[in-house]
Amino acid sequence: MSIAISILGLALLILVHEAGHFYASLAVGLRPRRFYVGFPPPLVKKERNGIEYCLGAIPLGGFVTIPGMHRPIGHDAERRFSAAIAEVPALAGSVDRVKRSLDGEDFAAAPATLDELEGGLRVAKLSPAARSSAEKGLAELRDALGPDAYWKAPTWKRLVAIGAGPAANILLTIVIFTFLYMTVAGQATTTVATIAPELERGVTSPAKSIGLKPGDRIVAINGEAVKANEVYFLDPTTLQNHHGGLVLVGDHLYAGHGHNKGFPICVDFATGKVSWGGDIRNAGTGSAAVLYADGRLYFRYQNGVVLLVEASPAGYKERGSFTIPEVKNPSWPHLTVADGKLYVREQDTLYCYDVRKAKASGCEWYDLWGVAPPDQPDHSWQQISAFKRKFGGAEVELVPTLDYVLDAAAYERFWRVERKESKGPAALRSPAALAAEA
Fold first, then answer.
1. C-beta of residue 138 within 8 angstroms of C-beta of residue 118
2. What sign does the dihedral 41-46-52-54 (CA atoms) show?
């Protein structure tokens, strides 16, 4: 069934495409000779008003024959009449005169040479294959020399005839999607349509475990009657989440908007009104996976950029960013925050970043993103080191740093952990200097 539907769908696309060429050619005076849907051999063929209509047996394409697609040359005659000359050498003189008129671009005299050749072919004894080739050659050359030949037409007419095929397919796409959006958009309902048997292999879905079945109607939740009505609908130009999901923080939704764009957007969940965003460009490109944790939004983009954004409907405000190391191909893994650590998977590598705010000296401003109040000196430095560690039973690359030093005690603790992996930056200040400045 699926194969039959695919063939019918392809046939529809071909029909619309070739119809675009066909009707556009008629409109500008380039009268087609054939209209084929499918390739020969023909299943059904009919000629009407000098145009041959055909349904081909091979549903992998189609074509519209417009007369005189290229300027005729002598080789066209040689290609079509060579078989006839081989069987009846006396035809060579007539064919040669046709070739000379075409190569010399004497298109006024060429029709007379074709008449002479046609008379010779009429009385010649030829095999069916040679005669068929010769007759096709005569028809093609007469079309190419005719007043409605494609190559003779003004440029704008040729562009209309050729461009109408793709334009018809684009128009069909617009019509189909408009119809779908108008007729099959989802509607709010309290009736259960389907039940997923498992969340994953061996894990029964909650709906199945409580006995829900298709056709059940939800009438109350915790004893309170429910009624589902559409409050608002956001069209794709307003909110289109291609990938990465949405997060609800308080009364507002946050997401990446646009097909494969990931523009940050904030929407009032109760009203559907956009609070900000939808067209904000930043260092990230492609789709964005979104995570909320500890009052902040994490946007992880297809190109490896990770942004920290305030989760506030008041306005868009970036608090920092970094790029995941060695991003070679587009990827879309979701982020996870657990116990103050941000886990980011990039292909087969897992990165772990410490995103807890340091609390040394009563200051809570220093964190992964290097944000500090104006009256506090920034004693931070960034150290990245990779090493192997068992994680969930598999050996992965773990990058636990992007840590920040606030005072001597924090420095000593950090250095004890990291000294085996790296000597640190050459310009790193001593613990005493850090303590003095703190």
1. yes
2. negative
Q: Structure tokens of 257?
A: 């908007």
Q: What structural domains does the chain harbor?
A: 2-68+154-177 (no CATH), 74-145 (no CATH), 237-332 (2.40.10.480), 357-438 (no CATH)
Using 70 as the pLDDT threshold, list the residues of the chain that sit under it: 1, 184-188, 228, 356-438
Tokens for 122? 């009429």
Q: Read off the pLDDT of residues 336-382 as tens digits, 9 standing for 90 and up.
A: 888 878 888 888 788 888 776 533 333 332 333 333 333 443 333 23
| DSSP state at residue 376 | S
Q: Are 62 and 56 in contact (CB under 8 A)?
A: yes
Q: Rounded to whole angstroms, how far apart are CA atoms 97 and 94? A: 5
The Cα 368–Cα 293 span in angstroms is 14
What is the spatial order of strands in the sheet that 274-277 belongs to? 246-249, 252-257, 263-268, 274-277
Query: pLDDT value at position 358?
Result: 34
- Quote the distance between the C-alpha of residue 96 and its chain's center: 54
Task: Enumerate helices (H) and strands (E) in the chain, giving the number of each.
Answer: 9, 19
Is residue 310 within 8 A of residue 319, CB to CB? The reply is yes
What pLDDT score does 349 carry? 82
Residue 118 three-state SS: helix
CA–CA gap between residue 88 and residue 90 (Å, rounded): 5
